[in-house]
Design goal:
With 452 residues, this protein is an alpha+beta fold. It has seven helices and 28 strands. Helix 5 runs antiparallel to helix 6. It starts with a helix and ends in a 9-residue tail after the last helix.
Amino acid sequence: MSKLQSDRYSPTRLITNPTTQYDFPGDRFIPNRSLMDLDQAHSLLTSRIKKSCNPTFNEEYRQKVEEKLSLDSEGRPFRMLVFRGSPKSSRRSIRLIDEMRREELEAVDNSTKQSLFRRLPKKESRILDAPNIVNDFYLSIMDWGRNNILAVALGSELYLWKSENGKVQRLLQVGAHDYPSSVSWSEDAKTLAVGYMHSNLQLWDAETSKLIRSLEGHSGRVAATGWNGHTLTSGSQDKSIINHDVRSPNNLTSRIQAHTEEVCSLKWSSRGNVLASGGNENRIYIWESSKMSSSNFLHRFDDHSAAVKTLAWCPYQSDVLASGGGTKDGCIKIWNTQKGTCISSKDTKAQICGLEWNRHHKEIMSGHGFSASEHRNLLCLWRYPCMTKVGEFRRHTSRILHLCQSPDGLTVASAGADETLRFWDVFGPPSTDNSRISELEGLLSLKTSPLR
């Protein structure tokens, strides 16, 4: 091969003069890469996507690109690669590519705006009276079961509120010197566990409104309970954690004595293999279900500087746990329980009384109490994992005591020391059902009895 022929096909020549014509056979076509901006294409496919916090954006963007790669502006198929041809066809191809880029940029911007600035309700969708609710940071007296029934203790009485029809039923009433200190629905929502100030722990049948049994073992108030299948775990002011097998006549299966002060919170992971416990001595313990003993914990976290009353497992990352500290701490901390590390810490400047993860967006809501600043009595919505504030609600006139969410994960209920329950349609898309909106507006005025 001559020197001229060798240079003709050399890589150097292709780079320095990419549009040079070559005398290839008539049936051979070489892509003309000079007509394609590969750097900009790579930027559109990578850097723009990283700016979005919307979990559904990548899939929408991919579908949009596939549509544009298969059809031209008139709906006819066209080839992705731009081949050397007449000036007229080249200009037409360039226009198509420019149009694609412009439309994709607009799609990226719109999706990013929707993710970063999604619409939130301006106020609660419903308000219910909650007279005599005990204003105590350490109690956990509200829970929303999978049967769509909200259980809430008001002083010495415990009520069941049915979300479907708004009916209220009083389940129990105890003596004036005792009252419920924790409430927790079983996973099948057939049984309600109720802990009391005077160390009692009871199981109630919600359908028949009858007491099933009493569970022994504690000597102080039971302010934390949590279910894991047929196992009920309880935490007490006596500093102990007890696992009860509710099927067995001898219910006590294990007792753990690791916390040095009252056990304030208990949460089982979604898979049921790990338990998190928070204490008044500012510590969090992580326990494996198969190896639970007083000295055999998986991790111990000492980063909070106040009582840990609220814990919440992430619904889409099973090893991620959120915790909230009391007045002197005010931090939301995110933990990797597999590695035993703190992923992030957000100072909210207020007592954290409740945390609820959003199952439909990557967000977490916090309910706040005491604060030396204007952050008290707030509900705040945070974007995860960056923990930037999406919005806040200042409707309670006293500190927020409890948070829980509906079974469908669309509505959050907050209970405040102002003796009100407020319902927030904040986790899902806004409702467009006019009849539903009218019904909610009508219920706002019904405040003549407890929970009405």
